[in-house]
Amino acid sequence: MKTVDSYNFAGKRALIRVDFNVPLNEKFEITDDTRIQATLPTIRKILADGGSCVLMSHLGRPKDGPTEKYSLKHLINPLSVILGVSVKFADDCIGESAYDQATTLQPGEILLLENLRFYKQEEKGDVAFAEKLSKLGDVWVNDAFGTAHRAHASTAVIGQFFEDRICGYVMQAEIDNAQRILEHAERPFTAIMGGAKISDKILIIERLLDKVDNLIIGGGMTYTFTKALGGQIGKSLLEADKQELALEILEKAKAKGVNIIMPVDNVCADAFSNDANRQIVATGQIPDGWEGLDIGPASIALFEEVVRTSKTILWNGPMGVFEFPNFAIGTDAIAKAVVKATEENGAFSLIGGGDSASAINNAGYGDRVSYVSTGGGALLEYMEGKELPGVAALA
User: Fold this and answer.
1) Rounded-to-integer distance, Cα 343 and Cα 78, Å
2) Fewer CB in 10 Å around end: N or C, the chain?
């Protein structure tokens, strides 16, 4: 696999698949530019070599072609400011405008293409569409790990049209850090799995049972475990058909000598709202009409102690409904515990993309852990042992 460091881009036009799927507010202002910041080293290396960059990305999930809300034109000004280069824009990702601007790019210049997903062919992995995109560059650089698990035209199919297929810095760092966790973890190794559903995490949980010493389970999925063990969960989130699976996970963990740590208390509410009435109850004792939305103080203390003594930490998924400030206390506490273990105990900490990345970045701790992944689903699939099309296409 060719890497950015091993390639000289002098005089080359690099067609780079980036992940600029950033959140925008109602004024189309970027509210979290983590994914853009992550790609800057790759772009800057190419420019420093004397190359030019054609950037292609998706934004959101447009359903019916071009949509103002999902136009990448909203990124032109902030990108120009961040990069210190006046970024050009093509109002299409294929066609004459894109081709004319790309082929006349000079070394040091950057062209941003319009949203790839304005064409349904992108997500379908259409070969003819991929070939049209390929005409815009001399070399293909894939730096979009967040979409590497999709066999889309720009993330995988396009590779066949290039002799030089380059792994960007983001892609390389994601793979290296995931491999460090999977193959070279210093012990004790603790995985913290949160989020809403067991079904979303079952494959990675089962793989981790062969690798971790401790598995902390938090978030909405805990209520399915609690119900399966005979507890009362009120109207909390429940995957009724996954209760048997929850018990199987507990049995497998016991057989493999993995220490499973689950909440011992919950913060519950009488409505799904930040302003709902709240009470703290022991796990398995949530009254009818109430729902668990966060872990309680005793659970926080229990989880913190396990994290504090860990040398390798993988965290994927929040402990509660962290979008509501009143129910973000557990997630914030775990973020602080991971930071403390990293800074004071020398632990290696990998934050597994998605909501976990948002939580740690929003709390201002992104630069105080070892690595924050930009890919939620992609990281999970890679750790589950699946081949990612976007990675395979670089070989």
Assistant:
1) 32
2) C
What values do phi and psi take at 49, rounded to 5? Answer: -70, -20
- Rounded to whole angstroms, how far apart are CA atoms 269 and 291? 5
Determine if residue 21 is labeled as part of a ligand binding site: yes
- In the residue annotation, 256 being an active-site residue is answered as no
Report DSSP state, residue 388.
P
Catalytic residue among 35, 88, 132, 211: 35
**Average pLDDT of each block of 10 consecutive residues along the chain (395 residues)?**
96 97 92 89 98 97 92 96 96 95 98 98 98 98 95 98 98 95 95 91 92 97 97 97 96 97 98 98 98 98 97 95 95 95 97 81 87 87 92 96
59 is in an annotated binding site: yes
Q: Please identify which of the residues 125, 284, 354, 376 carries the catalytic annotation.
A: 354
Q: What is the CB neighbour count within 10 angstroms for residue 262? A: 19
Q: 23-43: buried (b, 16+ CB within 10 Å) or exposed (e) per residue? A: ebeeeeebeebbbbebbbebb
* For residue 66, cis peptide bond before it (omega within 30 degrees of 0): no
Is 292 annotated to bind a ligand? Reply is: yes
Residue 122 parent element (H or E): helix 120-124
- pLDDT of res. 124: 97
Catalytic residue among 197, 278, 311, 336: 197
184: burial class by Cβ within 10 Å (0-12, 13-18, 19+)? exposed
- Is 58 known as a binding-site position? yes
Q: Which amino acid is at 327?
A: F
108 annotated ligand binder: no
368 assigned binding-site residue:
no
Phi, psi at 201, each rounded to 5°? -115, 0
pLDDT, residue 50, reads 98
- Sequence letter at residue 254: K
DSSP 89: E
CB 293 within 8 A of CB 320: yes
Residue 354, annotated as binding a ligand: yes
- One-letter amino acid identity for 103? T
Q: What angle do CA 193, 198, 201 make, to 5 degrees?
A: 55
The pLDDT assigned to 190 comes to: 98
Both tokens of 100, joined, read: 């004319």
Neighbours of 275 (CB within 10 A): 9
Decide if 197 is catalytic. Answer: yes
- Eight-state DSSP code of residue 181: H
**pLDDT for position 290:** 98
